[in-house]
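testing teh design pipeline on a random one, pls ignore if ur not involved
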């Protein structure tokens, strides 16, 4: 089993910034993809950004140019720098990792961008 612990969520005014972190621990062999997803009230969970072990990134169109994903493979940690936050970014943000044998989710951290 892999455990994921997210941190860094909170309340920020629109236009502000937050940095999310997610640390993976447990039965880690070789994490391939680390990423962030979010779920707003009444909506389905959606991809925000992912990053492969080789550094290839993928972003949702809605966050391109504002959010940056990065990872520290030595620390099994993935980050999400969120700038120019908008009220529509308000959601619970979930970390997800993929490695041989399956994928794992964190419990989420709430991000609220107030107008």
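output:
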């Amino acid at each position: 089993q892999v455990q994921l612990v997210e941190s860094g969520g909170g309340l920020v005014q629109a236009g502000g910034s937050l940095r999310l972190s997610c640390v993976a621990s447990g039965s880690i062999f070789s994490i391939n993809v680390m990423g962030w997803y979010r779920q707003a009230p009444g909506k389905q969970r959606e991809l925000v950004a992912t990053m492969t072990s080789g550094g290839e990134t993928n972003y949702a169109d809605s966050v391109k140019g504002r959010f940056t994903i990065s990872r520290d493979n030595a620390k099994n940690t993935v980050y999400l720098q969120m700038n120019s936050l908008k009220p529509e970014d308000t959601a619970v943000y979930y970390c997800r990792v993929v490695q041989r044998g399956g994928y794992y989710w964190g419990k989420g951290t709430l991000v609220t961008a107030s107008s």
